[in-house]
Amino acid sequence: xxxxxxxxxxxxxxxxxxxxxxxxxxxxxxxxxxxxxxxxxxxxxxxxxxxxxxxxxxxxxxxxxxxxxxxxxxxxxxxxxxxxxxxxxxxxxxxxxxxxxxxxxxxxxxxxxxxxxxxxxxxxxxxxxxxxxxxxxxxxxxxxxxxxxxxxxxxxxxxxxxxxxxxxxxxxxxxxxxxxxxxxxxxxxxxxxxxxxxxxxxxxxxxxxxxxxxxxxxxxxxxxxxxxxxxxxxxxxxxxxxxxxxxxxxxxxxxxxxxxxxxxxxxxxxxxxxxxxxxxxxxxxxxxxxxxxxxxxxxxxxx
Length: 303
Description:
- The protein is 76% helix and 2% strand.
- Helix 2 packs parallel to helix 4, helix 3 (59-79) packs antiparallel against helix 9 (180-206) and helix 10 packs across helix 11.
- The protein has helices at 2-27, 35-51, 59-79, 85-104, 121-126, 132-155, 158-168, 170-175, 180-206, 217-231, 240-260, 268-302; strands at 108-110, 208-210.
- It has one domain: Orthogonal Bundle (ABC transporter involved in vitamin B12 uptake, BtuC), CATH 1.10.3470.
- It starts with a helix and ends with a helix.
- By secondary structure, the chain is mostly helical.
- It is globular and about 55 Å long.
- It has a two-stranded antiparallel sheet.
């Protein structure tokens, strides 16, 4: 039961980050490595605010706004300074390493004996009837679903349609008289805002900030997106964002299972790399099969 709860907690937290990566990777087709810096930034801001007595609930909007600002800077570097998308993310990720150290004041900042989103007087009064070991996962579940629904709503608005259009064909957006660069900046801001909120929740669930928590974050996000969108591509009864959330849970479940089977926790990055490679190969094989089947059908029609 403890293993299942841990998978649910971490899987749902990283699902929020996966939703941000979904915007950059799938919608904007933008390889944004800013994620590896904005995730620990959320953790740093949450820990420093809580350690100074700020309400834990306040950390969520503050982290989102900070992440949105960082995403905007990445977008400005790419759009206004004409730097390639990959390099823009690398520049911002590198800068954020120092920024995160400045925010936290040191490389490791614990908040073990302080009130968090999952352990405070308000939570205790509202969820006192729920067993303590289930409270954290319930709160994370509610926050994740709320963020997913808000993202679904945004993507159904005019601004959301423009965001998706930029990734598919930016010429259409330009023909509508809309600045495609501004749309990209908006998408990067929202994406990094979500990633930073994920880091905020992660720090409060783990009760510490460490400068290295963001290492490989973008790979985890990509794995969640690719798992979800590959396995549930043909299921149309739910939105793609739901697939990303489930993909994150599956990814975390696979990692937990590998460790449970005897692999050391120090092998976590290797497990992630192997799993990610397998997912990519599986996705490419499926695309080849779909393309081959389509070619056969087209050939049969011409006969």
